[in-house]
Amino acid sequence: MSSGRSKSLTDGDLQVIPAPEKPKPALPPLPPVVGSMALVEYAPPAPVEDEEDLEVKLRRIIDHVPVRVSNTSGSSAGSGSGDFHQYRQMRRKEQDRLARMDVDYQRRKEMTEFNMRREERMKAAEERTAKKRLKRQKKKQKKKEKKIKLNAGGEEQQKEESSDDGDSSENGEDIVK
């Protein structure tokens, strides 16, 4: 604006000055708590603790979700010769999208059902295995006890026989017949 000559405000030029800042609107005052006859009670807004997290999520959504308008037909009341073909194409795309969603849903549903049946079969097999394992262990324990019992009874008989004979080796061990 400086052209080398001085201008006055009367020549039609306006002078730019900064406007005073407007104060931010404050929240309305709290109504009296006791004896309120109001239909709607005032509740102060809840403090947002994760405001930064929400902003990050919003930014991520905005960055990753494409903004694309595929239905760009005009705003005039009449339809042109190409509108039917556009409609048919959009309809076909939407039906394909819905069919893909249905197939995906069915696939996920079948997988969850399969996994549930598989888990049930695995639990049943594990229970059968545990039952058989316990049975084997009991049988093994009984066999071991029987063997110990026989050995204990046999040792007693051998000790009795060796004490009757009075024969003992120089090492002090009994002779096994």
UniProtKB/TrEMBL annotation:
Residues 1-30, 69-177 are annotated as: Disordered. One of its GO terms (cellular component) is nucleolus. Residues 162-177 have a biased composition (Acidic residues). One of its GO terms (molecular function) is protein kinase binding. Pfam families: DUF1168. Residues 92-129 have a biased composition (Basic and acidic residues). It comes from the Eukaryota. Residues 130-149 have a biased composition (Basic residues). InterPro entries: Prkrip1. This is PRKR-interacting protein 1. It comes from Vitis rotundifolia (Muscadine grape).
